[in-house]
Amino acid sequence: MSAVKSRSILRSVPSHQRAPTESEILSDLMVQAGRGNEAAFAALYDLLAPLVYGIVLKVVRDPSISAEVAQEIFLELWKTATRYSADRGAVKSFVATISHRRAVDRVRSEQARRDREEREHRLAVPPADSLAELVADSFQMSRIEKALEKLTPGQREALELAYYGGHTYREVAALLGEPEGTIKTRIRDGLIKVRDDLGVAK
Amino acid sequence: MNELHHLAGAYAVDALEGDERREFEAHYQSCEICMSEVAEFRETAAHLGDAIATAVPPGLKDLIMAEVAETRQDPVPVLDSRRTVPASAVADRAVPENPAGGDVIDFTKRRPFRDQSRVLALVGAVLVLAGLSLAIVRLGPGGSSVEPLLAAPDLATAQLEGSGVGAIRVIWSADRDEALVIADDLPTLASGQTYELWFLLPDDGGVSPAGLFNTDDGSVFKLIELEDIQNVGWGVTVEPSGGSQSPTGPVIFSGSA
Fold first, then answer.
1. ipTM score of complex
2. Of A25, A35, A53, A202, which to mutate for an interface test with B (greatest number of B Cβ within 10 Å)?
3. Do B145 and A94 touch (CB under 8 A)?
4. Is the dihedral of CA A132, A137, A141, A142 positive or negative?
5. How do residues A43-70 score in pLDDT, each as one tens digit?
6. Which of residues 31-50 of B touch A (CB under 8 A)?
7. How many helices (H) and strands (E) does chain A have?
8. What is the pTM of this model?
9. Are the C-beta atoms of A90 and B91 separated by less than 8 Å?
10. How far apart are CA B44 and CA A197, in angstroms?
11. CA-to-CA distance for B35 and B32, rounded, in angstroms?
12. pLDDT digits (tens, 9 = 90+) for B13-66
């Protein structure tokens, strides 16, 4: 154990070395996890857990059930990491997709559905929080927020109820008293606008 | 463009169920337009998910890592080695042994909690359905500049806590003397300022400069090479451009493994 260093212990970093991107890091970690590297998986957890837990909690709402669902998602990610390979870049989108689907899967069990419908009849208001009501003031947030603001109120409401509320489009239609076809279209049009606004790669 | 095509949006945000979902799944895998639209919509939805990322309950990581330590991973899919397949061809093909057969799963049915085959089928189906062009063989080297670090057996991570906006994580390996700084939603600094990372040295040895980073858009991914990492923690301050030899501002983020 050496004493305090007074000099800088920085080594020079070659200037040609570009910064790694998030998707490269996630992809590398997945490859490592697939080789059984637990330390890499732990790092992957650190990077992805807020995303996974955030999505699940938003849809499921109960923190302890959400933690359970997040735990399942990560365990499956660990098991199936052997199938992941050097096709780079889609880890985050994939994990977000799985997380949302698992969350929705969980709340759409028969009992949960009955409870929810009862609750919704009682309240008769759309249950999803508007994103604007959540903390603003961060870059990612404002970027999404800006994209959502460009939607028509109807598109935004439909998209938020479907994604953040975890409702089917038929449920959204029932909640809003609109025709199902209208809601279907609003969800798709809303996604197209947000996609184009965020510049999601074609 | 038929009627089913309009379901891509609802499908991508899991707003379809039952027959309609099955019908769409049967359709879209043979429809190039729907396939790419679903992939794009899912990526879009991932951004919506990102916006609601939430601090995870403490203790969850330990639970998961304890389970991971006792869980065998799925068999590695292998190709017949006598056949040589160009990497691109492999990448474009869906996983052939996909247990769901690219098939349909009724997600409306309640799934027993630890039913692995179903879970596997789910994951497999999502992999295929997400249009991720999952390769089934390792395509050899070609990782990013951080791959050697991320492969280090002593890889450690620290979440630095701060009172302000944003989050900073450091992933490092003392064996390799490299650290990766990852940050989200960090405030953009005034010109003439930089973020500086510090080691907290053992035995109250004070702090030592560990590198500079900055951001235009709130996010940071920076690999820092160091000499002889032996710190017990990390801290971040805001310093004048070029950095300082000892902190001149308050520590705004700190944390340890």
1. 0.80
2. A25
3. no
4. positive
5. 999 999 999 999 999 999 999 999 999 9
6. 36, 39-50
7. 9, 0
8. 0.74
9. no
10. 10
11. 5
12. 999 998 999 999 999 888 999 999 999 999 999 999 988 988 899 899 999 999
